[in-house]
Amino acid sequence: MILIGMFDSPFVRRVAVSMKLLGIPFEHRNWSVGRDFERIRAYNPLGRVPTLVLDDGEALIESAAILDYLDDISGPGRALIAHSGPERRAALRLMAIASGAAEKGVAQVYEGVFRPAEKRHEPWVERCRAQMHGALAELERACASVGATQWLIGGRMTQADITTTCVFTFLTAALALTPDSAPYPELRAHAARCEALPEFSSTRAVFSPPASRA
Question: Is residue 118's pLDDT more than 90?
Answer without folding.
Answer: no
